[in-house]
Design brief:
Blueprint: E1 3-5, E2 13-15, E3 17-20, H1 33-46, E4 50-52, H2 61-70, E5 79-84, E6 86-90, E7 109-113, H3 117-131, E8 136-142, H4 148-164, E9 168-175, H5 179-187, E10 192-196, H6 210-217, E11 220-224, E12 242-243, E13 246-247, H7 250-265, H8 270-279, E14 284-290, H9 294-304, H10 311-318
Parallel strand pairs: 3-4, 3-14, 4-5, 5-8, 8-9, 9-10, 10-11, 11-14
Antiparallel strand pairs: 1-2, 6-7, 12-13
Length: 335
């Protein structure tokens, strides 16, 4: 599988398809150890060498499972990213309850926001312990939306020091918005950012701010949420499709169906086009797709390998579904 180096950290190379491990933390429903191990094995056999996790995912379960699945692999052959900003504090009095943040795990810990220097160090140390790995290749600030001052003023300098010491390979931020990510790119010394849901076949807000900033500053962009929480994940979007983790508005479902119809006329599916679309952006170094088991991984790889005709983007623009083909004359906007 093809890989791209981070412009500022060429020693860190990400395969164009990345493995999202949130489902390994029992996102929405339980996943067995065997299912998740099968997902990692299948991804590895297909050539995927970039794996993303976070303490937030299942209160550490995703990190533990990913570390166990990768531990016997040659360490220099893969890249792992995790995140800081939420410390996991033991909460034994709530262990009989279920986690309230969307993961089907016991509420044995609570998440505490902390972007302080000490919080960063404690978080990375805990992640190394949970994964059992000798190092973390990329560390992202996780959802610092309401914590700009501490994240930019304390967490980033702490990560810069760790990067300079060789403790981590690259640093950045991961968010569900593009405006603050663009600010991190412009105002701090980050190497890579992860943008979830804001640059997809359905919406391209990141083309206004983040992507131009990243390209001009030599910062890599990892795209997550490429299916907009599910709306673009099926060949034909259903009436109950999700968008931004909630029921999708009818007008967005109809627009996604119109996009799907144009894709079908070119012999590709909506999910195949969704993956191909984001890869055309020069600043995008990888696209992370969340998978739960081996069959989902196989499907993700198959979709990513689809050959999509360049004329598709012109056809979508002509249908009013893209303002201009990506990479040709400026930002792309939804109609």
């Amino acid at each position: 599988m093809r890989a791209r180096a981070l412009p500022r950290r060429p020693e860190v190379r990400l395969t164009e398809l990345g493995f999202g491990a949130a489902q390994g933390g029992n996102l929405y429903r339980a996943t067995t150890d065997e299912e998740f191990a099968s997902a990692v094995d299948t991804a590895w056999e297909a050539g995927v060498r970039y794996y993303d996790t976070a303490p937030h995912y299942g209160l550490g379960l995703s990190e533990r499972r990913l570390g166990a699945a990768l531990r016997h692999r040659p360490r220099d052959e893969y890249v792992v990213s995790t995140k800081v900003g939420r410390l996991l504090v033991p909460s034994p009095q709530d262990a009989h309850l279920r986690d309230s943040d969307g993961f089907d795990v016991p509420a044995s810990h609570r998440r505490v926001w902390d972007f302080s220097r000490d919080g960063v160090h404690r978080s990375i140390e805990a992640s190394l312990d949970r994964t059992g790995l000798d190092r973390i290749d990329i560390v992202y600030l996780h959802d610092p939306d309401d914590h700009w001052e501490q994240a930019a003023g304390e967490a980033v300098p702490a990560l810069v020091d760790l990067r300079d010491q060789g403790v981590v390979g690259a640093i950045g931020a991961g968010m569900n918005q593009s405006a603050m990510l663009a600010r991190f790119v412009r105002e701090t010394d980050v190497d890579v950012v992860m943008c979830a849901g804001r640059y997809t076949l359905l919406e391209q807000g990141a083309a206004e701010d983040l992507l131009p900033a990243a390209e001009s500053r030599g910062v890599g962009v990892v795209i997550a949420g490429v299916y907009n929480s599910g709306l673009l994940s099926r060949d034909q979007p259903p009436a109950d499709a999700l968008y931004n983790y909630q029921q999708a508005p009818q007008e967005l479902i109809e627009r996604a169906r119109r996009i799907a119809a144009v894709c079908e006329s070119f012999g590709v599916t909506l999910p195949q086009a969704a993956l191909a679309f984001v890869r055309r952006q020069p600043a995008v170094v990888s696209t992370v797709v969340g998978v739960r088991n081996g069959s989902q991984t196989t499907e993700a790889v198959r979709r990513s390998e689809a050959v999509v005709a360049e004329e598709l983007w012109d056809a979508l623009a002509a249908a009013g579904l893209l303002a201009a083909p990506p990479g040709q004359g400026g930002p792309v906007h939804p109609a």
